[in-house]
Structures are given as C-alpha cells and as structure tokens.
Amino acid sequence: MFRARRSAAGSDAPSGSTIPPGVRIASEWSWRFLVVAGAVGVLIFLVIQLRLLVIPVLVAVLLAALLVPYASWLGSRLRFPHWLAVTTAMLTLIAVVSALVWIVVSQVRAGYASLQERSLARYDDFLAWVSVTFELSPDELTALIDDTVAQFDGDGDWLVTGALSVGSTLTELLTGAVVALFVLLFLLIDGRRIWLFVVTLFPRRARIPVEGAATAGWLTLSNFAKVQIFVAFVNAVGIGLGAVILQLPLALPIAVAVFLGAFVPIVGAVVTGGLAVFVALVYYDIVIALIMLGIVLLVQQIEGNVLQPLVMGAAVKIHPVAVVLAVAAGGYLAGIPGTLFAVPIVAVLNVVVRYLSRGQWRTNPRPSLADVIAPHEHDHPTTERRA
Length: 387
Description:
mainly alpha, 13 helices, globular
C-alpha cells in the first residue's frame, strides 16, 4: 500500500517540474524559430548561388504576369488563335524594349560630342573654383589630382580586371536575356499545365489551398506589374516634361531612363532623375540644376504621397515602411536584382499568407482580383460557417 501511494505520488509530478513554464514555452518557440530561420537562410543562399538562373526566371515570371492577361485579351476579344496571341505578345514586348533602347542609344550618340565638351568645360571651371577657394596653385592642384589617380592606378591590373568584369557582365546579361525569353515563351504557351503539374506534387488535401493561394498571389503579381508601369510612366512624364520646359538636351533619353529606373521602388526614379540634374548643371548653371532638382523631388512627392498610397497601396496591400525595408533588404542580399524583386515577392507572400492563415480556400477556392484587392469579404470564413 505504501508503495502504491509512492508510485501514485511519483506519477503526478511532471518530469520537467524544475523548468518554469515560461522558459519551456520560450524554448519550444526558439527551436521552431531556428528551424524556420535555417530553412529560409538555406533558401536565400541557394538563390544567391544560382542567381544566374533564378534572376532570369523571376524576370520571366514578372513579364508573364503582365503578358498573360494581354494574350488572353487578344484571344477573347480579338479572337486570335492561341499561337497567334502568344506570338503577338512576345513581338510586342520585343518591339517595345527595342524601341526604348534605340531611343536612348540614338539620342545619346547624337548629343555625346556636345555633352563631352560641356563636361570638360565644367570640369575646368570646377578646378578653377577649387584652386581659388582653397588657395592652391595650378602645380599643387595637378599634383593632388595625379596622386588621387595614382591610388587607383597601381600596376594597371585594375584596367584589365575591369575590362574582363565588363565582358563577363555583358555575357551574363545576354545569357540571362535568352533564358528569360525562353522561360517566358513557355509560360505563355503552357503556363497553366506547368502549374497544374506543380500542384500535383503536393498532398491531395493541400492542393485546393495551394491552388487558391497561388491564384491570389498571381493576381497580386499581375496587378503589381500593371500599376508599376503606370507609376513609372507618371515619373517619366513628370521629369521628362520638366526637362523639356527647361530646354535641356537629351530630355527623351532622360525620360526613358526614369521610366526604366522607376521599376526599382523608392530610389530608382531619384537616381535616374539625377541624370537630369547633371545635364542641367553641365549645360546651364547651378540655378537651372536646382530647379531641375526641385522638379525631380516634386514628382517623387507626388508618387510617394499620392500614387503609392492610393494606387500602389491598393494593388499590393503593403505599408510604405514595409516597402522601404523590403527594398533595403533586397539590395543588401542581392544588389540591384534584389531591389527590383523585393516588393513583388513581399506582396505575393503577404497575400498568400493571409489567404492561408484565414482559411479563405474553404469558402473562396478560386479568388478573383476583387477578392485580392478587397479581401475583407472573406476574412472570417469560420465565423460565416458558424453563423
């Protein structure tokens, strides 16, 4: 009887009674967090190592999000056969990109001689200003410039290394462009069947949630691509129009550069707008350059305070602070490609996580664009079922 009481008392006492409950809960959350963080870290490492393959694929997916609705519109409205709709979409993309590149190259070549002459003149004026301001003689100023250049010269190896680096970069760009066009073509031709094959890799019970979440993410990505083109167009028109009003040369290439740079949120249009400020400084004076800088900042204020909250915010449902942090993190991890893809990746993940965590696939397995933009209609499916 004594032994029975002792064994019963021993069975009531938990084996981990010496560990406080708070510490036990914290440890359980900690090891789970470490597992998730390790998996994310390995994924990021693999993406960085395979960037020459991953970046073209991501570019193809982003372009497909824009061209798939266009090809579908050609097929439904204009009654194009599928092959003709895909061919028209691809040719439209190639024609637009080629036209933009031709505009920039032709305009820059036409004004290069004048820009070079003006730049050298402004450089001489700058040296004269430095000499007067800091009371340096021409010989002292020349010696200072020679010493500064010598720091980068070394044995001349940096020139060979830089040339090899540029050649390697051009090869990577051409290879990436070919891979992106190849993947984009097959996404347009057979993207739905490719995705259905991916869905079959998941367990049967998970296929409906995965399909619904992927549909919501795809709609968000398509909406982001369309809205980003609109925002880039507004930036290009605003800054390009300011350059035309100030009668700056190379206004059209500047507008095209701003349009392309605006696809990098927050900083892209500011950096490319700096080209307009530089041209104004080279061809005119500091006053015109400051006016051009004011135009660039004004356009950025309109984008940040009007377009981003009203248009982009409604399209991707991300707070501006999250956009800035995503761009900074993407740039730190993957450079320029990271800044380009950070916002669409975060936007898609945000929609997918919201869709899955709220169980919206139970009542809305095939979400539409209206559901993605205004998801409050299906925020609480469990409550609706109970009611």
